[in-house]
Design goal:
The chain is of the alpha/beta class. The protein has two domains: 331 residues, Alkaline Phosphatase, subunit A (3-Layer(aba) Sandwich); 90 residues, Arylsulfatase, C-terminal domain. The chain is built from eleven helices and 16 strands. The protein has a ten-stranded mixed sheet with strand order 7-6-5-4-8-1-9-10-2-11, with helices on both faces. The chain has a four-stranded antiparallel sheet with strand order 13-14-15-16, covered by helices on one side. Strand 15 and strand 16 form a beta hairpin. The longest helix has 25 residues. The termini are far apart.
Length: 469
């Protein structure tokens, strides 16, 4: 009898559960995103990329806890082009930015579909702390593109201690207001770290998902190491190797290590606030390094489309999604970060984005994909173009054309053009068609720009770059 009662009771419970309304599971919290970009760092200026004289345990730790990418590229050979591609998720040439913004090169066009704007529309707090270099007015600054909060400078470079480019060129802002000389004497790398931490703390307290672009200006010149301020405001300028009493590699190393220490403080903040497991942390760089940098096995430097000018470190950590300790040779580029972050935030990636979502590949949910990527510049009046398709790269440097297999020759020392004319014949027309597409759209956005659509706008490609890259 008791068994019968129990059986009836169990059946009733099952039927009751089946009839009860199903409550949807609460969606997983959307990840926070901390994107850290250094300025003019060499490919081999991190310990995990081969440096022996630089200690970068915090940045390297992102790779140990996530993935280190070996074949990642900046969109441009200078600051503005790469940053433009990050913000708009597209090749910067579509907006006439082949060179640094300033002079004849226009500020970045406001599209309404920028990375920060899409995240802001999706309920994220959005902040940029550090370098902008995509427009020098409030109407063309970070907040016009979707950043709710901005602390930093609008131009290409500033004195690390006095936050200007000369006595008549102050450049330190909070939101839309100049705050110069409020923090005079304080080291810019530390200010960027501290304000980034404050942004994280405020939004953690508000229980709001956040995206913060931590845009360090180190180790860009002036090469001012921590604890070595220039003697007077505005004396920090570009130091060249042929000058007397010029900067040293030791100065540069100290600047890089200050960035690493800042990254460490940001990571400690995430840990203290219990945010580590739900925060994507990305570290990368905007282009190749200058003369004090270490490019490792790569040839040439910033300003060029050779590997030393465009291949950059990239380390990505996303606990629970990316397995620790991975090394990926998936080819990626700055604008991929835009698409990846938008997708991870649960927003819709615009169909006109040129970048792809890398996370399914880095999470090993989908196989690696072959890429075809393009670069173009006339920085310093040196016409250069390049395309990488799979392992093959074609470089057009002025009137010279080179073909390399990067998997076999990452240093671009063995020109295979005479052996692989078939590859030259396949890749060179790709650049032509890509340029035609870029320039056709540029004419739509900037119909009055002189030279637009003729291999790039005259202002973006035909004029000498503004001082201060």
């Amino acid at each position: 009898m008791m068994r019968c009662v129990n059986s009836i009771l169990i059946v009733c419970i099952v039927l009751a559960l089946a009839a009860a309304p199903v409550r949807p599971q609460a969606p997983a919290a959307r990840p926070n995103v901390v994107l850290i970009m250094s300025d003019d760092m060499g490919y081999a200026d991190l310990s995990s990329y081969g440096a022996t004289d630089v200690k970068t345990p915090n940045i390297d730790g992102l790779g140990r806890d996530g993935v280190r990418m070996t074949d990642f590229y900046a969109n441009g050979v200078l600051c503005s082009p790469t940053r433009a591609a990050l913000i708009n998720g597209r090749y910067q040439q579509r907006y006439l930015i082949d060179n640094v913004v300033g002079g004849a090169t226009p500020p970045l066009k406001i599209t309404g579909t920028s990375l920060p704007q899409l995240l802001k529309n999706s309920g994220y707090a959005t902040g940029l702390v550090g370098k902008w270099h995509l427009g020098n007015t409030v109407d063309t600054g970070p907040r016009a593109h979707g950043f709710e909060y901005f602390f930093g400078f609008l131009g290409s470079h500033i004195d690390f201690y006095h936050h200007n480019r000369g006595p008549m060129a102050p450049d330190l802002w909070e939101n839309d207001a100049s705050i110069y000389p409020q923090f005079d004497g304080e080291y810019m790398t530390d200010l960027i770290t501290d304000r980034s931490i404050r942004f994280i703390e405020q939004n953690a307290a508000a229980r709001r998902p956040f995206f913060v672009d931590v845009a360090y200006n180190a180790p860009h010149w002036p090469y001012q190491a921590p604890g070595k301020p220039s003697p007077a405001p505005g004396t920090g300028a570009q130091q060249l190797p042929q000058q007397d009493n010029t900067a040293t590699r030791a100065d540069y190393v100290a600047m890089v290590e200050a960035v690493d220490q800042g990254v460490g403080k940001i990571l400690q903040t995430l840990q203290r606030l219990g945010l580590t497991n739900n925060t994507i942390v990305i570290f990368t760089n905007d282009n190749g390094g200058e003369w004090l940098s270490n490019g490792g096995p790569l040839f040439n430097r910033k300003w060029t489309v050779w590997e030393g000018g465009i291949r950059v470190p990239a380390l990505i950590k996303w606990p629970g999604h990316i397995q620790p300790g991975g090394v990926s040779d998936q080819v990626g580029i700055t604008m991929d970060l835009s698409a990846s972050i938008v997708a991870a935030a649960g927003a819709t990636v615009p169909s006109n984005y040129d970048g792809i979502n890398l996370f399914p590949i880095l999470e090993r949910r989908t196989p690696a994909v072959e890429r075809t990527l393009y670069w173009r510049t006339n920085a310093g009046n040196r016409n250069m173009r390049a395309v990488r398709s799979g392992d093959w790269k074609l470089v057009v440097d002025a009137n010279h054309l080179f073909v390399f297999n990067l998997r076999q020759d990452v240093g671009e020392r063995k020109d295979l053009t005479y052996q692989r004319t078939d590859m030259a014949n396949r890749l060179r027309p790709l650049i032509t068609r890509w340029e035609q597409e870029m320039d056709a759209e540029a004419r739509i956005h900037f119909p009055d720009a002189a030279g637009a659509g003729q291999g790039g706008a005259r202002g973006a490609r035909g004029a000498a770059p503004a001082r201060g890259q």
